[in-house]
Amino acid sequence: MQFGMARSISIEIKQPVGASFADQNPRRVVYENPMIMLPWFLAIVLAACDELVLSRLLRREYTDHRLIWESDGKPRGIFWIPPEVRLGGWYLTYASGRAGRVLGLKLMFRTPPWAARDTETQKLVRLHRILMYAFLASLLAPFVIAGLFQ
């Protein structure tokens, strides 16, 4: 083969004689290789673990540094909701959820002064970073795997 020449692969799929409608439906997707789906399941587990860590960080900021928590926009996590962000007992403010996401992204790149003073909080910030980078890697892994084996 010469350089610059494209190589094409053709695959012919033959249906058995007594195949049902579901077997003949071209939109039906069958995953023969579960390794493509495994990183996405891992990403879900990593995201849940990171939400637990981030909720602990936000609770720590709430209890130990209340003025900083208020200046950050009263952030809340998924697994921890302070009473100040509830309206009417069950409705949660959108701004507090957004503030929690923004603070989570900020914590990926820098450690705030309130977190740098406590060793336990520093460990939680490091764990948050590890979980988020692992989440992003496992989220993108199926696309890389598919690109390599295609």
Write the layout of secondary structure elements.
Layout (H helix, E strand, L loop, with lengths): L20 H4 L13 H27 L1 H6 L14 E2 L3 E2 L1 H16 L3 H4 L2 H30 L2
Antiparallel strand pairs: 1-2
Helix pairs in contact: 2-6, 4-6
What structural keywords apply?
mainly alpha, two-stranded antiparallel sheet, elongated
Q: What can you tell me about this protein's structure?
A:
- The structure is a single chain.
- The chain is mainly alpha-helical.
- It has a domain at 49-148.
- It is built from six helices and two strands; from the N terminus they run αααββααα.
- α2 packs antiparallel against α6.
- It starts with 20 loop residues before the first helix and ends with a helix.
